[in-house]
Amino acid sequence: MMKMKAPRKAGRTWPALILATAVACPGVAGAAATGFNDVAVSPDGEMIAITTHDAALGYRAPTTVSLRPTHGGAAVTVTLPCQGQDGCRARSLTWSPDGRTLVFTITHPHSMSASLYATDRTGAKPTVILDFPGLLAEPRFAPDGQLAVLATAAPHKLGGATEASAVQTGEVGTVIDEQRIALVDHGALHFVSPADLFVYEYDWRPDGHGFVATAANGDGDANWWIAKLHVIGSDGHDRIIYTPPGNRQIADPHVTPDGHSVAFIQGLMSDFGSTGGDAYSLPLDQPGSPRNLTPGMHASVSALMTHCGTGLTGLVLQDDHDALVSLDRPSATPPTLWRSPGGADAASVGVLSCSGNRIALSTSGFTGAARLTTAQLDHGHPGPFSTVIESEPGPQIPLHVRSLHWHSGPYTVQGWLLEPQGGKLGARPLIVSVHGGPSAANEPHPADIGLTHQMLAAGYDIFLPNPRGSFGQGEAFAAAVQGDLARGPMRDILAGLDTAAHAADPAHPVDETKMALVGYSYGGYMAMWAPTQTSRFRATISGGGISDWLSLEGENGIPNASRAVFGSYLLDDPKPYLDQSPILHMKSVRTPVFAFVGERDDECPMQQSQEYAHAMHVIGVPVEFVVYPGQGHGLSHADTEDSNRRSMAWLARWFDHPYVPAR
Hints:
Keywords: Hydrolase, Protease, Serine protease, Signal. By secondary structure, the chain is α+β, with helices and mostly antiparallel strands.
């Protein structure tokens, strides 16, 4: 299950209480053709390196690398050796300590090999530092100029559980991919971290004599959920300094500049890269007992930085906005250094980099332009931001954005309502879009591309709830989903649905006979679960969903993920797994479902959607089932476009001609 930074449903209950003012924002959905992949500020704060892509082509699109002075001046495009070719994606921009050299990786997906390149501040033609018969990621310089990188020799697949799984033939599981820390030395690699230890993230110790890393033994895709915090010496000596509770994950380790402590994020997380929780600090000479820096905070820390001023800085999602906060001492309300707009004008932070006295970050909202901006830092506080890049306008749809709040049981829940403006007066269909995860969030994202744009263009309202389990309201709220992946979140969504209907523009009220629920990954699971619990939805759309938690344990490549969200192994306590499997509650289903999935999805395998489609055929309810050849948990641009086309046709079909079960 994953968070994707693009996307992330008959009776009736009236009305859920709106707790915060739902201000309508007359904006324009558009201007987001540029997607920002990475940004790196040079150590002197004078240059910004940026990788971008054509957002309309999806996150796998080829990238462009450019260098831009922070105080104005012409941008320079770095000519990549594979410029414009399919799969040409520069990643992991990293400046040398003296700021003279910019390093990045390029993976050659068809040959399963990678190269490490370097250019200078002028953007000169990149030179090869290393060609490697395997995968490379996250190059990092030590203060003395040593260069390390994560390297996987002779991999069987691209890195990460969301990539397409290797073909399972012959004796399975005898050889696993190992991602290890290695030093780059005169065009060769010297492996440092032990074999059979898969390293996920790491940071240099300031003295250059080793690393702090999150790592786990065995299969890297399967075991991120049980990773521990390690100290690895430059001689390869490895010791574990912290083992998190079995139902929590750790991410984003950063050694403090004095070398005495490591800061990291701990929380209930659904997938590597979908980061949220509380911030912790652990003295390196006192292993085992970290200190919570954000106890009881009603927000989720998503990233940590040790170079934004003099102390530790956190990027947090707090309700409907992002913020930078100071984490120098434990507090439930850490001092705010900067915050993005919230409410109707909300914009979320995409990529971010700090170096000394300079910060650069990208923001995008449902309306307006996506931007990369920069500001001078004064004791960690950003001054006025100036725009470095503003995206080109995309298709324009006048749009109202409303940030909604409502009560559901003991919780206050937040979500978004998007309403296209204009058109004929009268009621409109409403689409509920459930995010992946469950540990993730529906945040502001460009509404001028993809399925969001197509639904708005068709005149549909879109409701984006953040039910329990989501980031943004604190760790207790995010962890409330543990053991209750289905019923509690569905109650939150249905209560929010009533709030959205109550808040909609009176000139365009919600047509409660034309509502649908769509989602991918965890959202796809909820699109399978919803028809077993309610008849409020005319149709649902499930991408990469889960129908049977029991069979999933024997099919997917990430069994430890289930333990994290259920709190126990299936063999120890099967009841919650069975109780929350849609396949065991199908007798009452009367809602047509479109299900699609990648053939080699290792997280939510194809067989899960196949089981559900088969059950739909057995009970005689309309279903469409599509499998995309060779794809993993993330689809290619062409397959995404096809699934979007099919989704729009599915919605139009059942909105125009409701399904009536045979008597």
